């Protein structure tokens, strides 16, 4: 790990870049990995379109004040991703989904806190 001082950036931003960002990236990657294990597989499209990422925004955009915010995200980009996670209606019948993202998040949070 390289420690660097960025003289034109405030301490909070430096801490985010050097400490928090790598942790956020690692956690998002772990949630994506577990989600792929939990994803129902018929064609493999759902599993193959799960990927980790990060998004940056101002604290005001995130609703947490004035700070710079880095958010870990897990993208599920298959057309049927949400239907599998939450279920769907077809005609007058509700089809129960097979959640894979929420259980993955629970597993990773539990592992990180125990």
Describe this structure in words.
The protein is α+β, with helices and mostly antiparallel strands and 114 residues long. It has one domain. The strands form 2 sheets. It has a two-stranded antiparallel ribbon. A two-stranded antiparallel ribbon has the order 3-4. The longest helix is centred in the first third of the chain and has 28 residues. The radius of gyration is 18 Å and the shape is elongated. The mean pLDDT is 86.
Question: Any chance you could write out the topology, listing elements then pairs?
Answer:
Elements lengths: L10 H28 L6 H4 L1 E9 H4 L5 E9 L4 H6 L1 E3 L2 E3 L5 H13 L1
Antiparallel strand pairs: 1-2, 3-4
Helix pairs in contact: 1-5
Largest sheet: 2 strands, antiparallel
The main sheet orders its strands as 1-2
How would you describe the shape?
elongated
Question: For the terminal residues, how far apart are their CA atoms?
Answer: 26 Å
Helix and strand composition category: alpha+beta
How big a fraction of the residues is strand? Answer: 15-25%
- Tell me the number of structural domains: 1
**Percent in helix:** 40-55%
Question: Given the structure, what is the number of helices?
Answer: 5
The low-confidence parts are none
Calculate Rg over CA atoms. 18 Å
How many strands in all?
4
Mean pLDDT: 86
Q: Sketch the topology as an H/E string, one letter per element.
A: HHEHEHEEH
């Amino acid at each position: 790990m390289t420690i660097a001082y960025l003289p034109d950036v405030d301490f909070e931003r430096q801490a985010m870049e050097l400490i928090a960002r790598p942790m956020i990236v690692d956690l998002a990657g772990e949630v994506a990995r577990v989600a792929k294990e939990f994803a129902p597989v018929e064609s493999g499209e759902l599993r193959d379109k799960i990927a980790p990422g990060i998004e940056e925004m101002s604290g005001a955009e995130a609703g947490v004040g004035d700070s710079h915010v880095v958010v870990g995200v897990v993208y599920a980009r298959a057309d049927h991703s949400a239907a599998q996670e939450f279920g769907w209606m077809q005609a007058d019948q509700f089809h129960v989904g097979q959640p894979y993202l929420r259980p993955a998040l629970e597993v990773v949070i539990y592992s990180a806190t125990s």
